[in-house]
Structure formats: structure tokens, C-alpha cells
What does this fold into?
Amino acid sequence: MARWRGTFAVGAGSGLAGVLIALVLLAPATAVAETEAAKTVLLLYAESRLLPGVVVVDQELRSALESGSAGPIRFHTEYLDLSWFRDTGIEPAAVEFLRRKYAGHALDLVIPAGPTALRFALRNRAAIFPRVPMVFTAGLRSMVADIDLPSDVTGTWLVADWPVNLDLILRLQPDTRRVVLVYGTSPFDRAEVGGVKEAIARYGERLELSELTDLPFDDVLKKVAVLPDATVVLYFQLLRDGAGRTFVPAEAAATISRVARVPVYGLSDTLIGRGIVGGRVISFREQARRTGGLALRILAGERLGLMDAGGPEANVYMFDARALKRWSISESRLPPGSVVLYREPTVWELYRWHIAGGLALVGIQGLLITGLLVQRRKRGRAQAALTRSLRFERLVSDLSNTLASVPPGEVDAQVRTALYGVYEELGFDRGSLIEFTDDPRVLRVTRSVTGPGVPPLPEKLAVERYPWALARLRRGEVVRFTALDQIPAEGAVDRANFLAIGTHALVGVPLQVGGTVFGCVSFASIRPAAADWPDVLIQRMRLLGEILANALVRRQAEGAVSESEDRFRLVADSAPVMMWMAGTDSLCTYFNKGWLDFTGRRMEEELGNGWAHGVHPDDLQPCLDGYRKAFDARQEFVLEYRLRRRDGEYRWLVDQGVPRLALDGTFSGYVGACTDITEIKTAQQELLESVALRSAIFASLYGHVAALDRDGIIVAVNESWARFAEENTGDTIRPPVGANYAAVLHAAAAGGDDAAQQAGDGIRSVLDGRWARGSLEYVTHVGCAAPSPISQTMPGVRPR
It folds into this structure.
């Protein structure tokens, strides 16, 4: 709340006007006080926000700061998930992200929650939030022993009472001879190993310690399932197993407790109710409460040095009554002040004094019994409501954890299981998931579960039949009624149609993501409800709707990606060419069926650079050099090389590759296609050899030989013709290649050369197809020489 400050200066005659002036002056001062009092606090968690301990600490810290602060608190929250990842490169990336994110923000306080977050904050404080005071919660001294804590850092220490818990185990089960310590492989999981070893060493040979760590979780379960008598399991923490799988520690404890042959003890209050017996456990709520007190003092301006807040004083004796009963441990042996949860009181414990009084007061027996029955019914209803609420809370929590990790193909099954669980738990008759469609007139019922004898909803519903309900859902509001007469007058159409499908009571929660409503989840009864549903239940139903909506959107998105990949593979496998794909590292990531059928090798043999195994040795290096050069330049390329076919024969391929680019232009690798061109290469070689052979034969012919086309143009001459023409440049009857020989003869004939006329007529008759066989002899003149007889052979004619 803001502090009021201002001054009244009301003199004579000021009256009401003076008061109003004073209030006007006072209001801006109030606004200034509120602005100045605002504080910014960064809550830093090293683990996932889904861990129960994180949830408890976060709620308690916020509550303590908001209720105890004189001014408003602005919270920033970061979840780093550091314990779930082994990669040491994650931390520098997280530091850079936080440095950039908070570079322009003034922080008043940083609260690291848990030992891993504390170590991260201390190591990187100068880079992310220098000179900002720090109050940590649930710190672990062993994890920061190598770091000097600055004077402006304080907080609460988390202390595992190993000696106290070992004494407690021997008190409850004196015949214990062996303690099996179960913990994971993350730094937090291993932080207390030395402490428990030191504590158990005090017992000498009375207690034997065994460790279950560095193993896959399934192997841990197998070992705890066959532990011998006189053994107990002491569970500390399991964020990551020996195989690198990550876990929610409370869920891991529940699984171990379920299969263990001996009792399981633990050291965290968040494990109570998960099957463990209990112990002297760390109260994360108390840790957070004490941290909140220190934080308020820092925000108020105090300078606190390192304190021993928290520690063993924040631990409590806490036990699960169901686990005590399972292992036959009497509650009378528990330490004084122990908290026992999940105890189911007997009728005698609840009503022993009433029953005794009833027996003593026989005269008023009838009235007393009536009163007891009424009281019992009320308490029974309250207890049943509480139990149902707790079960529903756990159902929603388990569903959230499950849907966050299941693959897209299993989302539908988990959604159906959730619908079954909710409608059975809350006593509904029908649970349905309804989604809007592209057709604004139709709703589609995608999933529906019903009780015995209750008909399911039809697959499609007409929008016009439920205008009132759909209008509320599209606004993000919950639709609920316990009887049809609760529907207002504007919902008359809805009332009639709800009656037609047998619905007399209903809760409908919108499915929305990012403010967009795309359907609803509804639970209906075929009879009016006995009482209205409480607001807390409706809030949980809203949470259920958000969980289902996120799961469905994620399934749709991941399913679309998978469908796109499957479609590409189908097209690629159906293509008549050999196709391949490579990633940004130039290594091949995919080959289609055509390639694998050609090479006769398996996909895993070809991936990476395995495909090069089949390239001809003479072509391998040029092929790789060409590919790498194009890859570095992000350019298209065309390569020719020989690849070994499955029958051992090398075949010539032409390989064309092009870069793949994402929608934002980011380079994603290469895609390419190969075509077998062996027959084309063979045909080309044969053609070259044929042309060479014809040229050799033509050149070796005796005499002066020229080849004419159909128009009489000289297309080739042999060496003898060419030499004769060079030596006798004045001979017009020996023109060069490209000249029209028929025209030359015709010109010579026009000049009175009868021999040229005779030769020209003969050649024309052959070109026109009128000459069959024979030869033509005529006399030509070379310069001033005497006439010389020439034998001109026609195409297709042998000389006489």
C-alpha cells in the first residue's frame, strides 16, 4: 500500500475548498510513493517449473513477498533446466541469454532457488546482474564450497539430516542391517553422497551401505525389486539416471516405492504421498517462507551478512500413513511432533465420544442418533469432496506431465484416458472433445467417452443448434448449468437441443491457445446435478482445458511436420531417378529407394560419406572436390562419375545438386538427383569411333575424291584432291570444300567446255536419282597444259 504524504494548510475561510485543494495536492504524492516503492525481483530456478519442489517454493516466495512488502513487487522468473542436460555448453548460452535479456533492466534482488541455481548465480553474477543483492533459498553448502560468498549474499541453507534419519530408520525398524542409497547422476543428485557415507560410518559394522547410481532407471527398478530382508532404501534425488534420461524426482520416487520389496525413506516433503514412508524431511515451504523474510529485509534497505537461516530447523518429521500401514510400522513409534498425512480416520476415532454419550443417555437415544447421522453425513460429504478434489488435482497434474512428454502419435490415447478419468472421477455420464471446423455451420466431435447405456454424441453437431453456448465459449467463458432451467431466455434454442441429446447438466470449457478458441471440452450428465460445481473445480477444469489445448496444438504441429516428411519420402521413393539429401555439415542424411535399389546397400551404410564407397576410384577425388567446392559456395553443381551397381558393374551417372533454403532464407543443406547415362556415354563413344573410321577410309582412297550433298555442295575432299587443288590453283574443276561443284561445272559448260557439260549432266542425273551405275570420262585442262583425260566417278558408281 502506498504511503500518503502532503500538507494541509487550511486557514480561515478555507472550508471545503481548502480540503479539496489539499486532496488534489495529496493524490500526485501518492502516485509518486507507489512508483518509488515498486521493487523488481528475479526468481532464478535451475530446474524445470514442473518439479513439485519448484512449484511449492515459487508459491510461498511470491506469497511472502507480496503480503509483506510495503509496495508493489514486480517478478521476473527464469527456469534453466540445468540438471537435465549434461552438455557443459548449455551454461554459457544461458549466461549470454540472461545477460542480454536483463542488460537494460534494474533489478533490486535476485533469489536463486536450489543449490544448482545458487552455484550458477554465484559463478555468473558479474556477467548477468552485477552488484545486485542476492538472497538464496535451499542452498547446499557442499555445492558452493569452492566459491567465496560476497557480503551482500545471504539466504537459507538446505541441510539433509542424514544422522537423524539413520537413527529414525533404526528406531522404526531395529532389524535393519543394510541401507541402499538411491540417487542420480546430476551434480545436485550427487551433492550429498559424502554426507550420507560419513553419517553411516558412525554405525560401524551394524549398517552396510550400498549405492544404486550410474545405472539406467530400469536397472535400478530391477535391483530394488529383489532386495533382501533387513534392508531399507534411502532415496535422495534422481534428476538424471546413468543412461542420461531425465526424471521428475517425485515421479521416480513413486515408481521405486511401487516396485521395491522393502520400505523406502526420503528427505523431501514433496515425496510424501508418492509411496515413501517419510523421515526427517526438508520442508521447502518453510525454506521459502524464511527466505521471503530475509528478502523483505533486504528490500527494506537492511544489509545482512551470511546467515545460518534455514538448516535443520526448517526440517520436519513427516510420514505417509498408507506407507506405515503397508510396512506394518506403528505410529506409536514415531518421534513426538511427527506430521502424519493421508491418515484415514476410523469411525470410532471420529465418533467415540458421541457413541459413548449415546450409550449413557439412553433416554434421548433417538435424538442423539439422528444428530449423529446428520453430522456424519455432512462430514462424509466434506471428506468425500476433499478426497475427490485431491484426486482431481493429481489427475490434472499427472496429465500435464504425461502430455508434455508423449510423442504426437500417443496424444489421442492420453486425451481419451483423461476424458475417462475426469468423467468417472466427477460423476459425469459423458465426456467429449469438440472442435470447430472450416465449415462455420458444423462442429466436429473428435473424441467422446460415455458411461454404460449413455449414447455418445453424433460425430457432427450443427452450430445453429447451440448459439448461446457457442457465443460464451468463443469469448473464452465457461458454460455450466446443473439443470436446464438455469439456461437464460436467450438460450431457448440451446435448451431444446440439449434436451434432445439427453443433456441435463453440463460443464463446457473452451480450448484456446494464444487467445484463439478452437473448440471445447465438455462433461455432461443425463440427469440434473445434485449441487452446483464449486469455483475451485471450475478453475481446475479451465486448467484441464489449457493442458488439452496445448497438447492438441502440439500434436497437430508435429503431426504436420511428420506428414510433410512422409509425403516427401513417398514422392522421392516413387521418383524415377536416384535422389539424396545432405545437411548443413555436407554429410548425406537421406537416399531414396531408387538409389538404394541401384547400389544394393542399406540406408545406414550410405549415410554420411558412406555413399562414396561405391564411386569408381578414378572418379572419387574429382567427385568429392567438385561437391565440396559447390557446397562451400552454396551453388548448384553437375557432376559425372561412375558408381558401382549392385551387380558390381560401374555405371556412369550425372548428379545434379541444388541448395535447400528455409522459408527465412537460411541454408538447410543440399538435395540432388542422379540419372544413369551409361548408354548415352556408350553411344557417344561409338559415334566418335565411327566418324574417325569413316574419315580414315575416306582419306585413304586413291585418286581425287570429293563428297557432295544433295545440292551439289562439296562437303569433304580427300588428301589427293586437296593437294591437286593447291598445286593447280587455276583449275576451276577442283573447287574447295563448301563450293557448289554442280554450279562450277555449269559455269565451265557455259564457257564452251563440253567435258564440263557432260560431267555436270552426269552429276545432276545422279543427284536427281536417274543414274543407276557407271562412270563418266571427260577431258579437262590444267592451266596451259594439254588436255588430260579425267575419270569422274559418280556416287554409287565403280570406275571401269
Notes: The first helix runs from residue 15 to 37. The chain is about 40% helix and 20% strand.
